[in-house]
Structures are given as structure tokens and as C-alpha cells.
Please model this.
Amino acid sequence: MGVADTPEHPSNPQAAARYAASARLSVAPMMDWTDRHCRAFHRLLAPHARLYTEMVHANAVVLGDRERLLGFDPVEHPVALQLGGSEPEVLAQAARIGAQWGYDEINLNCGCPSDRVQAGRFGACLMREPALVAECVAAMSAAASNVPVTVKCRLGVDQDHEYERFAAFVDAIAAAGCRTFVVHARNAWLQGLSPKENREVPPLRYDWAWRLKRERPDLQVLVNGGIATLEQAQAQLAHVDGVMVGRAAYHDPYELHRMDAALYGGPLRERGELLRALQPYVEAQLARGVALKHVTRHVLGLFHGQPGGRAFRQVLSEGAHRAGVGWELVEQALDATTARRAAA
Model:
């Protein structure tokens, strides 16, 4: 049973404490990647981390298929819903619905640089409209008063190179009630760069996020961008409240497990053990008619950089699309990995 079956689930002190602790480590919202199956896998790897949905436009939440867009498994908690949009009334409705479905946080996207997002007047271009973002946050907070409303943003857009402009944006949103900011520590270049290039080309300026936390200690500041290893995460945590890991968590998911174990003091488990812990979830999804490939595409990087990793990916990639295939294919992939490691 998912939270969708009991949308009005009340919060409790234990859940609130777990949510608060999860600020130290989170996995970024990533379009086409962090769906419900990905999040279920990441929860096994990182029992304490905060997980985020893919960005969902507020209009889709209000008018669309909510089970498809918002449904999630209770094991995913703490999990945040990221919304896109720029209309305060619609965002307020979507935030209220998200809270009713049991999400632990509602996050507003002010960082996505894609052309489609710009055309819809949301994402990173909203950094040029702090008053509008403040109005959106105030409306969302009033509509979803039982969960925190947070903002994910960039340092600025295009040629914005003044820290004061960035700080003024944060101050305007904080005055509307937002206490948590996830800062992707790059500018977004709205012309001339693809979304992929926008994750790599604009220079990282972590010092802006560090300064923000130092000057506004009452705000919770989480840093995103370029954080791929445990050591990098630990270095950031000397300056800010938390780190958000993006594509590194997807391409090398075992590093996410290392981070969670080190930052929260949990046991470090073997890759095969972690994957086998996913079997009940996979079999439950298969029983619902979900094809195996929709789950296993998210685990392909588990043996990244390890002997036998290529064999693991090959078995899953070539077999998971076949009709009727089940968990036995995952065991075959693990066996192939073991065989290659033994022969190395």
C-alpha cells in the first residue's frame, strides 16, 4: 500500500525528527531519473537521506493523474515533492494536494534552465522575479501549513555576478516564510547552454553558499552541484547544513551508500546484499504489472568501477525488456558479476 491509499496521513514526532536529520544528505530531483522506483532503491542505499521527486508542474498536480504523478511507497520517507510553476494560486493548490498525499516537504524549483521551463516562466528565470517567488512561497506555505515549503535555486542567471543580488533574492523569499534553501552553486545560463552544459560549464562558487550560511545562521542552507564523493560532502558540511548529491548518486549509487553510512553512523553493506534487499519491492511491482526494466534501469551503476560491473549491466540491459522476466534475471546479473570478479 502506498501513501496514495491514505493521503491524509498525519505527521508524528518520530517522522519530524527523521525529516530534520535528513537535511545533512539528500538526493537531487532529476527529471526522468528520480521516479518512485529510483527512490525506493536509493532509500535502501541511504536509509537517512532526504529524497526528492522529479519536478512536477503545479498544473499537472491540480489537473492530472495524481496516482501516476504523486504516488509513492511509504518506505521513501522522508521524501519531498518538487513543484514547478509561477502562479501563486495554482502552486498553493498543488502544495496543499502534495501535503495531503503525505509528502514531508514541498520544494519550489527556481533553478532549472531548460528552454521549455523558461517558456513556461518557471525554473531559473524566476530568480529575476524575487517578489513573485515570495508571493508563491507565501501562498504555498499558507495552503500546506503542516509541511515546510523550501526553495531550490541557483546563484543567479546569465551575467549576475553580484553576491548582493543573490542574497537579496534569498532575503525576499525568507521574508515570505521559507527557512530552507537548496543552493546549486552555479549560475544558470539561460541562453547558449543546454541543461547538461548548465550542470558543468558555469563555474562552481561554493563560497557564496558558505557566506550565506555564515551571514544568515537562522536559515538552513544546503549545497548542490559537483559533489560526487564522501570526502567532498564532508568538506561542504564544515560550512553548511547539508549536501545534495545529483547525478553521482545515480551513476555511482554505492557512493551514496558510503555517504549515508559515514554521515549517519550506519553499517557499510556489500553491493549484492543491498541489491537483494530490493527483491520484495521488485516482486511487489511485478505483481502490479510493472515491467522489470522500469526498476532495474536505476540499479545499473551499482557495480560502477568494480570488476564485473560491465557484465552486471549487460545482463540487466539485455534481458530486462523481455516480457515475463522476473527477479531471476537480477540473480543472473549478480552471478555474472561474481564470475567475472573471480576470473580477474
About this structure: Residues 1-10 have pLDDT under 50 and may be disordered. The CA atoms of residues 51 and 309 lie 26 Å apart. The chain has two domains: 3-264, 271-343. The two ends are 43 Å apart (CA to CA).
